[in-house]
Structures are given as C-alpha cells and as structure tokens.
Amino acid sequence: MKMKQRMLLYMSLAALIPSVSFKATPAELQAPDLYLMPMPKTITFDTGRLVIDDNFKAVLAIGEDSRLPASIVRFHQRLQMKTGIPLNFASSPDIKQAMLEIQCKGPGERVQSAAADESYSLEVTDRNARLIAASPIGVFRGLETFLQLVVSDDRSFYVPSLRIEDEPRFLWRGLLVDVSRHWEPVEVIKRILDGMATVKMNVFHWHLSDDQGFRVESRVFPKLHIKGSDGKYYRQSEIKDVIAYARARGIRVIPEFDMPGHTTAWLAAYPELASAPGPYQIERRSWGVFDPCMDPTKNIVYFFLDSFIGEMAVLFPDEYFHIGGDEVTGKQWDASARIRNFKVREKMKNNRDLQTYFNRQLLKILKKHGKKMIGWDEILHPDLRKDVIVQSWRRQASLAEGAHLGIKGILSFGYYLDHMRPASFHYQIDPLGKEAANLTEQEQERILGGEACMWAEFVNPEIIESRLWPRTAAIAERLWSPFSMQDTKDMYRRLEYMDIELDLFGAMHRKNSDRMLHRMAGGADFEVMKNFTDLLKATGYSTRRKARQYYSLTPLNRLADAIMPESETALRFEILVDDALSNQFLSAELIQQIQERLAGWQNMNDTLKPVIARSYLLEEAKPLSELVVDLSKTGLEALNYIKARQKAPEAWQKKALDLLDGADKPQAEVLVAIGPSVRKLVGFAADIR
Amino acid sequence: MKMKQRMLLYMSLAALIPSVSFKATPAELQAPDLYLMPMPKTITFDTGRLVIDDNFKAVLAIGEDSRLPASIVRFHQRLQMKTGIPLNFASSPDIKQAMLEIQCKGPGERVQSAAADESYSLEVTDRNARLIAASPIGVFRGLETFLQLVVSDDRSFYVPSLRIEDEPRFLWRGLLVDVSRHWEPVEVIKRILDGMATVKMNVFHWHLSDDQGFRVESRVFPKLHIKGSDGKYYRQSEIKDVIAYARARGIRVIPEFDMPGHTTAWLAAYPELASAPGPYQIERRSWGVFDPCMDPTKNIVYFFLDSFIGEMAVLFPDEYFHIGGDEVTGKQWDASARIRNFKVREKMKNNRDLQTYFNRQLLKILKKHGKKMIGWDEILHPDLRKDVIVQSWRRQASLAEGAHLGIKGILSFGYYLDHMRPASFHYQIDPLGKEAANLTEQEQERILGGEACMWAEFVNPEIIESRLWPRTAAIAERLWSPFSMQDTKDMYRRLEYMDIELDLFGAMHRKNSDRMLHRMAGGADFEVMKNFTDLLKATGYSTRRKARQYYSLTPLNRLADAIMPESETALRFEILVDDALSNQFLSAELIQQIQERLAGWQNMNDTLKPVIARSYLLEEAKPLSELVVDLSKTGLEALNYIKARQKAPEAWQKKALDLLDGADKPQAEVLVAIGPSVRKLVGFAADIR
Q1: pTM of the predicted model, to two decimals?
Q2: Residue A557 is nearest to which of B84, B518, B522, comparing CB atoms?
Q3: Burial B441-450 (b: 16+ CB within 10 A, else e)
C-alpha cells in the first residue's frame, strides 16, 4: 500500500487507469508528462527514452494493404510538423534502419466494416519501437498514439520507454456533420477527417440532405442537387475523394438522407413525392421542424427511392445507409383525405404505423441494394426490431431498453456539440451508463457506441472547427478508453494539449476564431479584445434560436460566433479558486493570485471601451464588458471578507447573488464564464463564521 | 495655409500623396481611417459612404475575358471573409442590382505581357460604385483596392465615397521564390500568389533549379527531376495549374533555370554536360557558390539545352525566360586544358567572354523558341546589350548605368527578403533612386521595376510566409505607388493592417509562427513565450551562415526560425520613446507608459525561466531572456535620470553603452529588438545638462 502511494506521487497517470503499471521500481522512474487522448487500455512504463532526431525512420516490416505505405509517409510528415525535424523518408525503406518497425499481421477489408479490428500493441525501448496490429486500421491507430507520445524536454524530443496494449471499448465512434443547414466545402471536411483520425474516431456520418439543402450530385435525379442546393453540393468525384481520404485514415463514411420528413429540399426539385401539392422551396426562413413530407402511400415514391438509393448505394460503399426518419410532424398526412383513407384501408392506428410502413418499404429497397438500415429513434417499431440500428437522440434509457429488446443502437443523446455544453458534460455521458447496469453482457454488446453530432444551424466553414475541437476529443476518449477514465481535471489537462496538437496538424479552430475577432476589432488592438473574449463562452442552439430570428443567410460574424464554447482562462481560474478554498488554511499566495486576476479584469474596461466603441459588431458586447467589471469587483469584495475572515453582510450577499443570477443569463447570446468561480468566492465569504 | 492645416488634422492621408483632394469642404469630412497598400495614384474624397451589407452585389456590365466572372466570384468570397456577411452571388447577375458595376473596356492578352494595361478608375458614392478598366488586369487591381477600402465603424461595414484613378509606377513588380534550396508545395505557392495579388504584384519569378535541386518534371530529360530533386519536383500538370492560378490573378510566371553555374542538380542527372568529369550529387552539404558548371565548349550542351528549352518554352507561356547566369566561379573552366585551348582558339580574354559566348548560344536557342532572355547582372556584356533584361542584385548605380547604355533592367538589390532587413529599409530602395536622377526620360523607362527575392536557404513551407509577409507589401507599394510616398511611419501603420488582412485572406505567416512557438514551448504557457518572442527579431542569411554549419536537412525549428523579421512590439515602443523624447517638455504620461513596459519586461524572466528550462529547443534563448532583463533595467535607470533631469554619470553611461553594443550582436542567431529604443533613452539621459 505504501509502495502504491509512492507510485502515485511519481505518476499522476496511475490514478487514472487501473492497468498502468511499472516495470522498473518507482524510484527509477521519471514522470513522463504524457498527453494521450484517448488514453490507451493499458500502459506499462519502463525507464529510458527513444530519442526522436533526424535518424528516425518508421519502416513497414510486414503488411500488404496499399494504404499502409501512404499512412507511413503521412506519419513522417506529421512527425516533422510536430518536431520541425526533417525526416528522410523518401528513400527506399531498409528494415535495419527502422527506429519504428511496423508489423501488420492481417489484410484490410475491402470496405471497412463495423467489425474491423482496431487493436494494436506498441513497444518502445531506448533503442527502437515496434508497432504490431492485426489489421491496417490497428496500424493507423497505433501511429496516432506514437505521434501523441512524442514530447520534448530539456534534452530532446523523445518517446518514453513503455509498452501499450490498446483496443477500443466501443466499435462505433462517430461524428455526424450536417452540411445541409450550412454547407462545408471538401477542404473543411478533410480537415475534420484529419482531426477524427487524430482522436481515433471511425465513423463519419454525413448528414447530406435536409429541409435547407440537398448536397449530393445525383445523376439519376439531377434536379435534386440543381434545385435543392443553391449550387452548394458535392460532385460525385468529390464524394469519392472524401471516402478515399477517410478510408486511408480508418474512417467509414455513412451517408444520411433524411426521410420522409426533413425533405423540403427534395420536394423543391420533385414536388410529386410530397404528401401535399407543391410547389416547394428550399427552407430559408428559419431552423426547426417543418411539415413537408414524402407521401408513403404513393408507389412513385418507392420507384424514385429505389433508383435513388441504387445510385447512392454504389457511390457510398459502407454497409450502412442512414435514412434519418426523425421529426415527422404528420400534419401533411392528417390533412390529406387520400392518406387518411389509406391508413384506414391498411388498418393503421396512427402516423407512426404509416411511417413504419414507409420504413419497411425502404428496408426492402436497402436490402435489394445490399445495405443495412440505420435511423433515428423514431424508426424504432417492433416490426423492424432485428434489422436496424437505432441512433438515439432521446435518452440513454431508451437505448438500454432497446438493447434489452434485441435492438442494436448508438448514442447521440448528450453528444450534441451545437448545444455548446462543456467537454466535461459530454465526458460523463456513457453509452453504457447506469441505465445499462442491469443488462446482460450480450444485451450490452448491442450498444455499439456513439456519435457526436455537429448540427449546422450556427456553424459555417469558418466556425465549424471551433465547435468541434477540442471538445470532440473528450467524446472520442469516452468511446475508446476504459470506463474507469473519469478524472475530469486530468481530461482537461490533456484536452488543452490536444487543442494545440490539433492546431499543429492543421485544424483551423484557433486561427479562425482569432480571425473573426480581428474582423470585429477592425484595426484596433487585438490583445485587448482577446483578453476580454477569453473570459466569455458561446451559447447553444436553444439560446440562440430564442434570441433572434435567424435565416440561412444571417451573418454569423458576431461575438457569439467567434468565441469558443469553453473559456480556458475561466477553467484555470476555477481550478485556482478551488485550490485556494479547498481548506480553511487559506494560502496567501493563491489568494494573492486570485486578487491579481480579478483586479486585471476589473481594469480591462478602460482599454476595451474604445475598441468596442469603434465597431458596430461589438456594440452588443458593452453590457458583457460591464458585467466582467461587476463580477470582478464582487469577487474582490468577497476576497476582502475572506482575507479578513469576516462573514459577508446579508445585504452585500443579496446584491452579489442578484448579480450572479443575472450573469447566468446570456447577453448577446454569450455568457461570461467566470461567474461560477465568483459565486464560489461569494459563497465562501457568506459561510464564514 | 490655415485651411490646409485643418485638412491635415482631418486627413493624415493628405500628408502622403500630393494628389489627395476633397470634393467637400474639410469640415464636412469624416476621417476615413484607410489602410490601402499599395496606395493608389490619386484619391478624391467626398462625403458619404457605401454601406456593405447582404444586399451588396458586384456585377460585370461590360467585359468578355473568361477570367472576369471567376474573379468576381472570388471577390465576393473574399468580401465575405472580410465581413462575415453571406453574399448571394450565385444567382444570375442583374445589372440593376449592382452595388458595384464593373466595366472592362478591352480584351485580355492571351498571354499577359509586361505591357499589360493595369490602370483602373473606381468611383464610390453612397448609392453604388463603378469600376472601369481597360483590361481584365485593371479589373483585378481595382477589385483588390475595393476590398481594401472596406472598413467598419460603429455603424456598419462601408466604403467611403471617393474617386480613385490608379495605375502602377513600374510595369514589373515581381517576387522571386527559390524552391531549390528548400522545396515549396503547390498549396504554398498558391497562397503566395494570393498574397501577391492582394498587393498588386504582377511577376512570379520561379527559381526552379539550383545546386540543391531541380524542381520541374522534364519529359524530354526525365533524369533531371528523378535524379535532381529527391522526389520534390512539380509535375507538369501542377506547373500548368499554378500558371493558370497566377494568370487568373493578373500575375505572369517566369521560370528561371540558372546556368551555366548553380547547376549541380542538373549535373547529378547528366554529368556529360559538366566542365569536369563527374559523378555529381545534389548539393546537400551547405549553401553558397559551388564550382560545378556546364561546359560552354561542348556542342552536346547546346543540343541538350535546345531540346530542354523547347520543352519548357511550351510549358511556360511567358515571353521571358530567365537563364540565371550568376556566380560562375570559373574554376572548372580554368582547370580544363580543353576549355583553356578553346578560349585561346576563340580569342577570348577571360571567363566572362566564355560565359558571354555561352549566353549568345542560349540567346539563339531562346529566340528560336520565341522567348526573350532575362538574367542576373553577370550576363551583361556589350554583345548582348539590346536583347536582354538584366536583373540587378548588385547596386542601383549599375542599373542606371545600364539604362544609360540602352539596357533594360529590373532591381533586386535591396529587395532580398532573406537578409531580414526591416520593411522600412526595403521601402526606401527605389529602382529610380538618386542614381537615376541624371537619366533622360527615355533612359529611365528602361528601368522596368523590381523584384523582391525570397532565397530559400533558411525557409521551408512552414517558414516562408513569415519571411514574405507583411514586408513584401512595402516593396509592392514602392513599385506601384507614386515616388512621393515616403512616410515610413504611415507605411508601418498600414502594414500592420495588411498583416492582418493577409492573414484574413488565408496567408499562414502568423499561424505558422505561433505553431512553431507552441512546438518549442511544449505544453508550457504560450502567452509567456509570446510576450518574450514579441521582443525579438530574426537575423538574415549572412548572420546565420556564419553562426553554424547548415545542411539541407538541418532542422529549422529554433527560435531564429519561428520569430518574425520585425518586432511590432519594439516598433510601437520606439514610436512611444520618440514621442516622449521629441521635446524637452517630457510628457509624464508617456514617460509613465515607457516605465510600465520596461518594468513588465524586466519581470518577465520569472515566468519565462521555467518554460525555457523545460525545452531543449529553448536552451539557447536563456542569454536572450537575460539580455531583455538587462536592457529593461538599463532603460529604467535611464528613465530615472531623465525624470530627475539629472545627467547620467559617465561610468553608468559606459556600462550602458557596453551592454547596448553587446545587444547589437546576435545571440542564437536572434536579436533583441528593443535595444535601439533603450539606446535612445540612454543617449537622452547622457545629454541632460
């Protein structure tokens, strides 16, 4: 026991994963300050390090898959980006020169399936390293781990000596990207795939059609993209390019064509598919749920879908095909005498039965074209039980219930990135949460994993990456790493590093956010802006939708769009406040640090005011800047009571709490992020006896 | 006179260009805080503004060239990037909706020539704007001006009402990019072309071969790129793509194949062309001037060059072809009995005559393939006088002398970006400087313009943009704008904005510099690093080459590579010090500001030390960080003497000057940029009576 405590002193990692162990005695160990994310299943540390210098070379010793050589070139390129050291990897590989030897024991699948083996083992000594995997996908995952292991200290870039055995906890670790509400060009999609590969995600769920746009070139029904996209669609050559790009990184691409609802853009092109007479137009007025809907009673709809799905089934090789199926209002169905009669004739009790009828026809079409069906919660019906995967946006409990009934599912509840929840919120959402505790092992296996969802009402090519990264890395870890990974503080420590790592490898979330702030500040002092906006955090879909009427073409160029979903500065401040208040022996040094920060924020307004005054885009920031001052002032007052060990007067408390309650409400669709920490100071000052 | 003073109060612009004028009376004028670069030839301001909102639309009213519609789409996209306002430019253009009407009065050239008409006029009222140009190139230039005119204030994005008549002072405004010493991929080249278009440059001089690499696919002589490039070469399809990209932006592409010297990479592939027996290898040991050289006495050399230039003449459509011709050591020629005999036989006095003989043969080959010759100073010889353009890296005087003798020339002396001189240095170098004062108008016209040169010993894809931008914009202005533009302070004011503008439009100089600093800091606090490195400036080729032995594969991942050529922070500090010391009535407020900054820098080391200690890449920064402390301390001491109006003691002066002299010498190939300002403070303190 004493031994174990000593180990914890040396290795904060030991607190995190039961399976971290040490080959050497703790006294010999240095503490490698690792930033792995997602954390591997087991790590055994040894003493020593593998130095990364210009002699480094990774060589494929065993492996046939054509993706492997390209992945190794890419690995070298990214290692160059990470270290700035030019690596000579163009010349012919000689296994004797290998500092990292790669063995891929088995073949790759022609089309990557959900059952792909992603496991790998990685052994690093002070002389060389060896990566062994059963499949190319395992090699890709292991190379990402190796890249993350590369750190530097006062001596060199290096990888610590260790042994890793790793495999994912869930086989389905996806990211949905909605390109209908706002369009994303191929270069952005590729950058997103790069980020997904970095955090070992394996399903790119491409939400390609919705009321606001149909985004794929159809050669069979060209009006779909011509009339349904305002020119913003992917050519089939581009789709193939993206799929190849994803496949090279061990990522499946699953298309979603949402139906029978969310189909206004289809109906703008082919109104004859609708349940009510047209004409229809691409939905440009607002976001939400609309009534236009395909007519499940018309044979022409199924003829159409047979041809369309036949075309798309070839274009998208994945075994799964997502048919959406969510949020059918049923109003068009109720309004149509013909459809009402059909329901009576077919003895359907309700619109749910009618939608299931539609889905059964779809299922037949999908089967004909060799595809399996996946859809949102709403497709769930006893008739479809065995044949579908349900993607749950509702509750974890429904996923568990489904699994109990024999239905496969993936979780998206709790993973909606557009809700702008903090990474810590997503991190605690588990597909096998307490709702699944009573399931048998077999039933649990039906819960395949989860998908983060990037709905696009409030993102565009400039904004999407700051809504994805780094938070998605926390979800990726939840889906890959052992359940026992639950230390939020350590997750944030690593997430901060991943944020920089993703930027280093090309993600644009940081640059684009700065760019937008520059635009708002005009020629004015950027540092002043940045110090202010670092204290803010963005709000999510529901807040923004209530705040004002948004149209497809509403400019997303305001503070609410430019700032990050979480404030690193506020997070660090919260840790400082927690540390300072963690016991009654208040550290004078920590109190001093809190005081300095609050004083700095209180004084910020003098330099900020003229910057705000110059920009019409910043006008709405004025109350926020004043709130920062007020909160800082209140925090300083609380600190004075705390330092004097004097209970804060009731009247002051009331005033402070009123301010804090007000600060919990968004202004200009933005929140000041230091509120909760100031509340802790106020609470502490109130509790002094 | 009084009137004029009032105007100056309103319009700092008025100080800059004689041709700025006002339609309205000064009292009616607001001061539009414009950031144009290069500054147009004439601007007439009126009251009013054209608001830029989502109604904005540019429409081509007159113009046939196929590049025009694409340039207008690109203009809209970039206006979106600048404002964040989605513009509806996909739908069919209706001239009635035009907020900016574009008239292109004449056709474009099939291949853009040096004589292309780049003039345009732009009129902006509070209702709409009109851009009129004689050619598509003029439209491209005018659209860039319009984009730069877009600013925001507390009311909106807008363009002030005005009338601009503009045309370039010089017809040749180029940028040389060396891709031999270090390779640059196509995406980087395209970003560079975007930047060039932003600042209205019109010649991309592509230095494609040198001792360190031959970078073009040759189908006639494939060993050139196979043996001469380590796999880092442009496929012909990529060359065509780059030329089309440049042409779409009004930029000519001139290839340079340097010969007969600087040809080691050719000779590695075809040693039979050399003046001494091979074998040869791509030069990987160091930078500089090497002896391997083509043999001008062998017929096979001219057969080879005839075929090769024939191939390249088709690939590169520009009328000019750059044959280099610089830095032939002649050692191989002197060492060869056969070549010595040839010279005797042909009555050649020296190697210069032999090189001219070579150039005459080259000239015949170029003429045969429809090309005009351009080369470096060394090709100049009475025999070639009328037929060539000389690019002068030597002195402005030689350019003037040449012009007097009838030779056309362009200036590169003073425009070497790899020397890391400040923008202000380049800004004062003029192709028609005082050396040209005595030339006739006709003689002056032979001086066609200039080219900035980005030699690539110390740049790679990650570094090149921070060496190009924003400094190249100052050279671009020198070559475009009236000679009367000489206000360095105002140039810097606008350059700071261009820096951000270039970043906004996609240049990576800022992001890559930050990325490199992040890499060096590891997981450590970036802000601390940044505050420190903002005080430093990079050194140039000669300093670095002396400092250590560099190889092609030497990592460029150190402080000297990551930091900028100029320190904005130091520039601002210098302005502050100049203002404070500008008269004997020292402003207490300014003195206070100086004191605060110096005190901050003096204290920086405490937080910086642990960051430096953690990173082997930062070890060499330690003396620099100590120098910052010492300089700040000395500055504060000087300030105390100044505040007390007490002459600084001799002993203190001597110590301070020793420190400052030391600070003028680079450490770790880096300079602390605040030295000159501290020297001013010390000098002021020493001069108190």
Answers
A1: 0.93
A2: B84
A3: eebbebbbbb
